Amino acid sequence: MEVVIVQDAKAGGELIAEAIADLLRRKPDALLGVATGSTPLPVYEALTAKVRAGAVDVSRARIAQLDEYVGLPAGHPESYRSTVLRQVVEPLGLDRGAFLGPDGTAEDVQAACEAYDRALAEAGGVDLQILGIGTDGHIGFNEPCSSLASRTRIKTLTEQTRIDNARFFDGRLDQVPHHVITQGIGTILEARHLVLLATGEGKADAVAATVEGPVAALVPASALQLHPHATVVVDEAAASKLKLAGYFRQTYAAKPSWQGL
Hints:
Pathway: Amino-sugar metabolism; N-acetylneuraminate degradation; D-fructose 6-phosphate from N-acetylneuraminate: step 5/5. The structure is a single chain. The protein contains eight helices and ten strands. It is an alpha/beta fold. A seven-stranded parallel β-sheet has the order 1-10-9-6-2-3-5, with helices on both faces. Strands 4-8-7 form a three-stranded antiparallel β-sheet, covered by helices on one side. Strand 2, helix 2 and strand 3 form a beta-alpha-beta unit. Helix 1 crosses helix 2 and helix 2 runs parallel beside helix 3. It is globular and about 50 Å long. It starts with a strand and ends in a 9-residue tail after the last helix.
């Protein structure tokens, strides 16, 4: 696992955006897996700036969604489909037909989960998956004690995750859904390159457990240790609990191996 320590969230966003741009120069129709929440916004902003400056062509790029709330009506502004359209697809000028996501409004949610796994496989798999991490070490909505071999499925959110997400619903916890569809850890691990971005002191314990702790279902993000090409980008605050921070600075600061194995 590569651990790249950057000065702040903006620097992390610039670094990851350049990795995506480099991928698209090599593979113009790459399938990019995107995460929602506030953490990856600097990535999308930096990538949009590159597109507008003519530094990269995204016209053939495709986007894949990591997860989705269950039960929100179609078009709800806080559905993850709406969020990805608003934060990624529209700013980049992509066609909505280039967007894959699970159906959180389906009557048969299990069938929708299986259909999304098939759609990802039929699309050739995710080339680069952007990930955030929860304070409890979850990735996607794979909460602690999720199976490390899990596939796309329905999950019940923990109370802490619902509290964390209430800020997107005007602080109203009662409006946050109890269930989500999420790519499973096994599904996530099939992406060719995993890039996790974490910023802020509140993520320091989760980052340390992910990078330096044992692989354990209690810390779902620790499964990234099993991946042949995983990159963790953290700011100084999120890196503050890493025992090997000095080693990571020396080893990966100059040039992460973005192009894979």
